[in-house]
Amino acid sequence: MQGNDLRKNQIILGTLVATLVITLLALAILSARRDPVIPDVPDEIFDEPIPDKPTNEDRVTFTSGETPVVVPGTGESSAFGLSVSGVDGSAGSDTPKEKFTVTDVSPAITMYVNDNLNVRKGAGTGYDKIGMLYWASPVEINGKTDNGWYRITYGEEEAYICGDYVQDKSPVVTSPVVFVGDSRTVGMKNAAGSNNYTWIAEVGMGYDWLTQTAAPLIEVYSGAGTKLVFNMGVNDLRNVDKYAKYINNHIEDWSARGVEVYYVSVNPVIDGSCNASNAGIASFNDKLKNSLDSRVTWIDSNAYITEMGYSTLDGLHYTKDTTLALYAYYLYCIQ
Questions:
Q1: What average pLDDT does this structure show over 122-148?
Q2: Partners of 200 in the β-ladder
Q3: Residue 47's domain is classified under what CATH number?
């Protein structure tokens, strides 16, 4: 009888010990997920010398009224969440439409916008605004008016910009590092704080935004010695072939200009939290990596962050600690 009681006590004790061990292991795993390990990278990567820049401060501009595209050197800043307005003078609803004549400029010449500049239907502020050109954007001039405006082609439409905000030479000093991405890159820019890098990023964007909005800015800020870092795809995994084609179509020109190109893998999500799944991400990463030109350096941050552990705010966007760990890893990989 005593032997049976002893055996029961041993079983109970063994069960308690096994439960305690399993609990401790679970807590250790959860702790690793919450506290990502920042890679052991040299401190000096955060202290890159700042190159000569325009005398004005950095400006954050907004293309959607919500999310920033960072454009250095325009001398003022906008509050997060506000849309940027362009210049060319004040125009009220009762401003008369100026009469003007146009002289053709043939062949067309390339000039550069030195502020965020309104594009109008006619040569004067009394004409309707149909768009805007961002600071430092190159623009083809095909006509000049007798009242100081330039004629351009905007989309497929004849349009006009004020000559006071256009110059012959680009106002840009190329950036040492250009990051191109979506909301995760926006979060990284915010977590990284002040630095001398250029961030071209917008929440919720994908391939179409890359080719239509980001592409001209990439050409403006990339030059000899620039490290161009792409981190896109989580919002439109289906466009993997298009991403590969875009990069491969431009790699010859980038390489000729001395630009080093990197593509960062799409990083993991919590399955069920968004439209992307980790299986879809793995397929995207594998196909893109194998499709890219050999001159593009692949950064497998997905494998890195999966191994080191990560935490998210909503299943898609990472906490500041995880974001900074990724930022340090990116900088480590491009040095």
A1: 91
A2: 69, 180
A3: 3.40.50.1110
The amino acid at residue 130 is I
- Asked whether residue 166 falls in the same domain as residue 184, the answer is no
> Which residue range is the domain that position 207 belongs to?
41-71+172-334
Question: Confidence class of residue 32 from pLDDT cuts 50, 70 and 90?
Answer: very low
Which of 113, 141, 170 corresponds to the end of one domain?
170
Residue where a domain terminates, one of 170, 195, 226 = 170
Sheet containing 227-231: order of strands: 59-62, 68-71, 198-201, 177-181, 227-231, 260-264, 296-299
Quick one: 319 and 257 in the same domain? yes
Beta strands (DSSP E) in the chain are 59-62, 68-71, 102-113, 117-120, 129-133, 138-145, 149-154, 157-162, 166-167, 177-181, 198-201, 227-231, 260-264, 296-299
In a domain, 21, yes or no: no
**Does residue 60 sit in the same domain as residue 184?**
yes
Q: Which residue has the higher pLDDT, 189 or 32?
A: 189
Q: Are 160 and 145 in contact (CB under 8 A)?
A: yes
**Whether the model pTM is above 0.90:** no
- Report the C-alpha gap between 334 and 262 in whole angstroms: 8
- For the chain, give the number of residues: 335
Convert the pLDDT of each residue in 43-98 to its tens digit: 433 333 333 333 333 333 333 333 334 443 333 333 223 334 567 765 555 677 88
